[in-house]
Design a protein that fits this description.
single chain, alpha/beta, 8-stranded parallel beta barrel, 40% helix, binds 2-phosphoglycolic acid
Length: 256
C-alpha cells in the first residue's frame, strides 16, 4: 500500500453555509490531480448540507474539525464521533493547535479523542507542532515526539493505517511565515523515524505526513517536493477555490 498524497483544507470558523456550498462545489468540480486525495474540513454546520447539496466528486472527502471523546451524554454543545460516523463523515481533525490553545486540549485528552474517533470508525488527521520558543531552543523534535507518544503511540500498528499526521509549527499558522522546505523535511523525516522505531518500516512508509502553516499556491510545490512531505493541511489559502486547486495541483510526484 502506498501512502496517500493529501491536500486538506481546514476552513476553521469561516464561511456561511451558502459560501461554503459554493466553495466546496468549485473545488469538487475543478480540474484536479487525480492522484491527490482532497479533504475539506468544514464547520460542523456545513457537513450535512455540503454532503447533500454538493456533487462531491471522487477523490474529495469531508472532515470534521473536532469531536468529543465520549459517544453520547450530557455534554452541551458537543459533537460525538458516533454522530459523525452516523453521517458517513470519513475524517476528523484532532489536536489542532488552536484547540490545544483556546480549548485547553492536552495530550491526554487528545489520546481519548483519537481512541474514540477510531472506535467509531473515523479516520484521524492528528495535528502536532511546536511554538516558536521551543523551536528557538532547538526542542522542536522532542516536543513533537512527546505529542505523538502521549496521544498516538498507544495505537496498534494496524490502527495506524487510519491516522494521517499533520505537522503544523504554531509559528507558521496564519502568520504568512512558512517553514522552509528544509525545516519541514527535517521534522517529517524525524516523525517517520519515530514511526519506524515504534511500529516498523511498513507503518512508517505508509503513513501520510502533511505539512501545515501558511501553505499557499506559491510555496506548495517546493514543500510538497520534499520526500517526506506527503501533502498539506491548508487554512487560509483553502478559502479560495482557485488558490486551493493550485495547491492540489502542486504535487510533482505520484504516491510512493
Ligand atoms: P494556515 O493554517 O494555512 O492559515 O496557516 C493552517 C492550519 O491551521 O491548519
Amino acid at each position: 500500500m502506498a501512502r496517500k498524497l493529501i491536500a486538506a483544507g481546514n476552513w476553521k470558523m469561516n464561511t456561511t453555509i451558502d459560501e461554503g456550498i459554493t466553495l466546496a462545489q468549485r473545488v469538487s468540480s475543478a480540474d484536479r490531480n487525480k492522484n491527490v486525495l482532497t479533504i475539506l474540513a468544514v464547520p460542523f454546520t456545513h457537513l450535512f448540507p455540503v454532503m447533500k447539496k454538493v456533487k462531491i466528486s471522487s477523490g474529495v472527502k469531508l472532515a470534521a474539525q473536532n469531536c468529543h471523546h465520549k459517544t453520547s451524554g450530557a455534554f452541551t454543545g458537543e459533537i460525538s464521533p458516533a454522530m459523525l460516523a452516523g453521517m458517513k463523515i470519513p475524517y476528523v481533525v484532532i489536536g489542532h493547535s488552536e484547540r490545544r490553545e483556546y480549548n485547553h486540549e492536552d495530550n491526554a485528552l487528545l489520546a481519548l479523542k483519537v481512541r474514540a474517533a477510531l472506535d467509531a470508525g473515523l479516520k484521524v488527521i492528528f495535528c502536532c507542532g511546536e511554538a516558536l520558543d521551543i523551536r528557538k531552543s532547538r526542542g522542536h523534535v522532542a516536543h513533537v515526539k512527546n505529542q505523538l507518544t502521549d496521544s498516538l503511540f498507544m495505537l496498534s500498528a494496524s490502527e495506524m493505517k487510519n491516522i494521517v499526521i499533520a505537522y503544523e509549527p504554531i509559528w507558521a499558522i496564519g502568520t504568512g511565515e512558512t517553514a522552509t522546505p528544509a525545516q519541514a523535511q527535517e521534522m517529517h523525516l524525524a516523525i517517520r523515524e519515530m514511526l519506524r522505531k515504534k511500529y516498523g518500516k511498513r507503518v512508517a512508509d505508509n503513513t501520510s505526513i502533511l505539512y501545515g502553516g501558511s501553505v499557499k499556491g506559491s510555496n506548495a510545490a517546493e514543500l510538497f517536493g520534499q520526500p517526506d512531505v506527503d501533502g498539506g493541511l491548508v487554512g487560509g489559502a483553502s478559502l479560495s477555490a482557485d488558490e486551493f486547486v493550485t495547491i492540489i495541483n502542486s504535487f510533482g510526484r505520484k504516491a510512493v
